[in-house]
Amino acid sequence: MPRSVALLVNPSAGGGRALRALPAVEAELTRLGLEHRTTRTTSLVHAQALAREADDAGRVVATLSGDGLIGAVAGALRGRPAALMAILPGGRGNDFARANGIPCDAVAACGVLVTGVPRALDVGDVDGRTFVGIASLGFDSEANRIANEAPSWMGPMVYAYAALRALARWRPATFDVAVGHDHRTFRGWTVAAANSRAYGGGMLLAPDARLDDGRLDVVLVAPRSRRDFVRSLPRVFKGTHVELDSVTVLRGPEVRIAADRPFTVYADGDPIGELPVTVRAVPGAIHVLLPA
To answer: What are the helix (H) ranges across the chain?
Structure first.
């Protein structure tokens, strides 16, 4: 059982979902006999400072949030061999929790702090910035921007809404992608570097990606038309879109990406870089309590 827990809460996560769950989470931690200290974060930088302080004090760092705060805390604890994280889902998508078998109910997830086992997981790196899920760009850049500006009451539906809104103004781009000696230039929609399987509230963009293999699954998406894109969208939730001729998956520890026009790279729901970028996998960079 953890010695003590530093609970970091993003008050705005999931449209306030994390904050609404907080009283029940604190009550459950007390019931489980876990000494804990709660802090509401004011920014990702603030959260990173709190995470380092908690680790220095020998506390397990638990996040009650969405994937954005998880990625920020992972960046703060990355490379600290004694640091230990725990995940209490409190966002709209909670894809990192889902990929690791953590209950999507925050109160139920508290039990993992007692019965879970530490596991070394990879993180992704975009020119020095850390993410835990999927870094993507192109069509995804516009869809992520729209999702972040959408009203909080939409919940997980926001990702489908954002994709359909982005569709109206999208025009394909030419991407230059290099994974090891495999160098490709193609006209398409999206390039994604996946450390984990899912994003966007359960979209299995990279269904075979693993969090402990030291590699990225690089997904290249090039539908022939808007109609083809719309038809393929439901398949992403099952991961069967990778069987289509319009989708290519490459694998390697590093990918270099450029395009014929500027794009913001998003990861874990937040902007993380601007093209051109180098994305790489960092093996075993964090230790996370996961269900036994």
So the answer is: 17-31, 44-56, 67-77, 95-99, 106-109, 112-115, 139-149, 158-167, 226-236
